[in-house]
Design a protein that fits this description.
This protein is α+β, with helices and mostly antiparallel strands and about 120 residues long. About 65% of the residues lie in helices and about 20% in strands. Strand 2 and strand 3 form a beta hairpin. Helix 1 crosses helix 2 and helix 1 (about 1-35) packs antiparallel against helix 3 (about 85-120). The longest helix is centred in the last third of the chain and has 34 residues, at about 85-120.
Length: about 120
C-alpha cells in the first residue's frame, strides 16, 4: 500500500510539473502569434523564431516563467511571456521527492525483510 501511495504521489507531482510546463509553452506560442502583445512580446518571439539578431526564447523553473531576450537600441530587454505558479511548482516538486522517498524506503524495507526471512 505504501509503495502504491508513494508512486501515486510522485506521478501526481510529475503530471503537475508537465501541466505547468505545457501551460508556459502554450502561452509563449499565443504571445508569439499576437503582434499587438504588450511590451513587444510578439515581435521578440517572431524575431527569435526567424533567427533574427540575438532574440532568444528561454524558460526557468524557479520562478516558472517563459521569457524572450533580445537587444533593442543597444540594451538588452527581457520580455516575460508567461508565468506559472511558484507555489504549485514547489508543491509538485516536493510531492515528487516525497513519493520517491516513500517508494525507495518501502523497497529497502521489503528487501531487508526478504533477506532476513531467507536467513532463518
Amino acid at each position: 500500500a505504501a509503495l502504491a501511495a508513494g508512486a501515486a504521489l510522485a506521478v501526481a507531482g510529475l503530471v503537475t510539473l508537465v501541466v505547468v510546463w505545457a501551460g508556459l509553452v502554450t502561452a509563449t506560442l499565443r504571445e508569439g502569434l499576437d503582434d499587438d502583445a504588450a511590451g513587444g512580446a510578439g515581435t521578440c518571439v517572431a524575431a527569435a523564431a526567424d533567427g533574427e539578431g540575438d532574440a532568444v526564447l528561454g524558460s526557468t523553473i524557479a520562478p516558472p516563467e517563459a521569457t524572450c531576450r533580445w537587444t533593442v537600441d543597444g540594451r538588452e530587454e527581457v520580455v516575460v511571456l508567461a508565468r506559472g505558479s511558484q507555489a504549485l511548482v514547489t508543491g509538485a516538486a516536493v510531492a515528487v521527492g516525497a513519493g520517491l522517498l516513500v517508494v525507495g524506503g518501502t523497497s529497502v524495507v521489503a528487501a531487508r525483510a526478504r533477506r532476513s526471512a531467507r536467513e532463518r
